Amino acid sequence: MSKMTIESVSVSDVGRKRPINEDSYVSNDAEGLYVVADGMGGHAHGEVASKIAVETIEEFVKMTSGDSEITWPYGLDEGLTLNANRLRTSIRFANHKLLEHTQKDSDCEGMATTVVAVLVEQGVADIAHVGDSRLYMVRGGELRCVTSDHSWVNEQVMSGVIDSEQARTHPLRNVVTRALGGKNDLEVDVQTVKLVEGDRLLLCSDGLTTMLEDREILQILLDAGGSVQQAHELVNAANRNGGEDNTTTILLKVS
Q: Which region holds residue 244: left if phi is over 0, alpha if psi is between -120 and 50, else beta?
């Protein structure tokens, strides 16, 4: 699979209820880098937070591309692949940038953002996330959520207090327990997945997953012969179901 190619389509939509789009994304086929960030903080500051995050991540990934002499601001974790280290460090760096920005501009106090990112190279996907933006994988006609939300409701589901059905409509479903812009020592979850021919990866903000159930997402992804153009249909479906939040999707296909 050394000659693996990636097709990608990215869509970001303000939805039906929000005045501005606080989501940001990067879709960089040349680097194999794809990022979705969902900003929080209102008064357009969520938009600032997500934009700073995706730009900083892309900048760091580009800077470390093929350059082993680079200084790593947080050291290297020997237990991770190089690309997992690149992603984790870029996200921590973005967090630092957000905190710096908040100190300079008191209006931005309280702004934060989620992030989900994937770096694809030679048949391997390194995935990193903070918050409740997700990465799904479709393989063999089945959908699997690869990331685990850093959210209050997900913690309740994991500990058996509520079930996933209750979590979908819970009044606290938007409360994240981890985000960029919160504190200095940000913990980033990273994992590495080997890809096979035909795999599809979906990165999305929670504007998609609060409007559509996983089975509906899978149905749309399987339609139209599994085309990456289904990224558009996912966003359209979220809007048809109410479009209560901004929705961003990046759909990748491995061939």
A: alpha
The two beta strands, 112-121 and 6-13, are unpaired
The H or E element that residue 115 is part of is strand 112-121
Domains and CATH numbers, the chain: 6-254 (3.60.40.10)
Q: Which residues lie across from 135 on neighbouring strands? A: 203
β partners of residue 203? 135, 250
Using alpha carbons, select from 99, 93, 61 the residue that is nearest to residue 75. 93
Tokens of 77: 């974790």
Q: Which residues contact 78 (CB under 8 A, 6 or more apart)?
A: none
**Structural contact between residues 221 and 230, judged by C-beta atoms closer than 8 angstroms:** yes
pLDDT one-digit tens code per residue, 156-215: 999 999 998 888 888 888 899 999 998 899 999 999 999 999 999 999 999 999 999 999
Distances (CA, A) of 233 to 33, 42, 67: 23, 27, 39
DSSP character for 151?
Answer: B
Kindly give the parts of the chain with pLDDT less than 70. 1-2, 43-44, 67-68
pLDDT of residue 72: 84
* pLDDT value of residue 192: 98
Select from 115, 114, 129 the least CA-distant residue to 193: 129
